[in-house]
Design brief:
Elements lengths: L8 E6 L2 E6 L6 E5 L6 H10 L5 E5 L11 H16 L4 E4 L7 E2 L5 E2 L1 H4 L6 E2 L4 E4 L2 E5 L6 H17 L4 E5 L20 H10 L3 E3 L15 E4 L2 E4 L11 E5 L4 E6 L2 E6 L11
Helix pairs in contact: 1-2
Length: 276
């Protein structure tokens, strides 16, 4: 991978491919949602709200395997929404367990359709973005040993090129044991990603998957594993999705839901801090 430096440009790689990702001077504010499950009203809300931010993160489950529309139809519609959103701001999308439309010869299911989303300004599975000291790694949903190994290779490759960058992962499942993985009975989530966090210590991990964890007393929309901040916006049955705004200028994160707003401070030592 070649080193490319340009003012006000966000670069990402996929395999040996590099493309520009235009931003304003620096990424100041992220909007994070997950588990939209083909709720078109929630996608419509994103069209109204997203432009207030500098980068939109959709952390998996854009589609709904149990939905009223067939998967091929859902893919066509969601791609149109992604195109509209990308016309307003960069969009980072990882696959979730409801986004899997193909199966490999060894039985691993994956979101093949995302690999064919060829839209300027849209990041998808296995791509990595760089901008002004910030690095964002988009991790695919894994099922099976081969897919798991690919996620591990992606993380290890980005760990080697991280340098002094602040590192954000986008991965659908929360790490096992974190409050963001509480399902009302047990702390579920992904043991594998929990181990990767412990080993590589990213600054922030953005996910979803466990819909109700932010609404339980024993759960939360945020947690900390060592120095890593973990977020899960959750899901609500409404025309407005639960969401998290991460403001790297004010250094705080705000969760919005039908229950109101909650806010936490982001320590400057544990997340991207814009240069003065």
């Amino acid at each position: 991978m070649h080193s490319i430096c340009a003012n006000n440009v966000f670069w990402y790689h996929y395999a040996a491919r590099l493309k520009p990702f235009s931003l304003r001077e620096r990424p100041l504010k992220l909007l994070v949602v997950s588990d939209l499950h083909y709720s078109l009203k929630q996608f419509d809300w994103l069209l109204e709200r997203a432009a207030q931010h500098d980068l939109l993160v959709i952390a998996g489950d854009l589609l709904d395997l149990a939905g009223h529309a067939d998967i091929d139809t859902q893919i066509v519609v969601v791609e149109k929404y992604l195109a509209k959103l990308a016309a307003m701001l960069p969009v980072a999308v990882c696959s979730g367990n409801h986004d899997l439309d193909e199966e490999s010869a060894n039985g691993d299911r994956h979101a093949e359709w995302l690999q064919h989303v060829n839209l300027e300004g849209v990041l998808v599975d296995s791509q990595t973005a760089f901008h002004d000291g910030l690095m964002i790694t988009i991790c695919p949903w894994w099922e099976g040993d081969d897919a798991k190994a690919r996620v591990q290779s992606l993380i290890e490759a980005d760990a080697a090129r991280r340098g002094s960058s602040r590192w954000i992962w986008v991965y659908h499942a929360p790490p096992t044991g974190s409050k963001t993985s509480w399902n009302g009975k047990v702390y579920s989530g992904d043991t594998f990603v929990a181990g990767l966090i412990e080993r590589h210590k990213p600054d922030i991990v953005l996910g979803g998957h466990i819909h109700n964890s932010p609404f339980y007393d024993s759960g939360s929309w945020h947690d900390r594993i060592g120095d890593t901040l973990v977020f899960n916006p959750g899901r609500q049955m409404s025309s407005i999705p639960t969401c998290i705004s991460i403001d790297f200028d004010a250094m705080h994160a705000t969760w919005e839901s039908s229950e109101g707003e909650e806010q936490i401070e982001i320590p400057a030592t544990s997340a991207y801090s814009p240069a003065g």
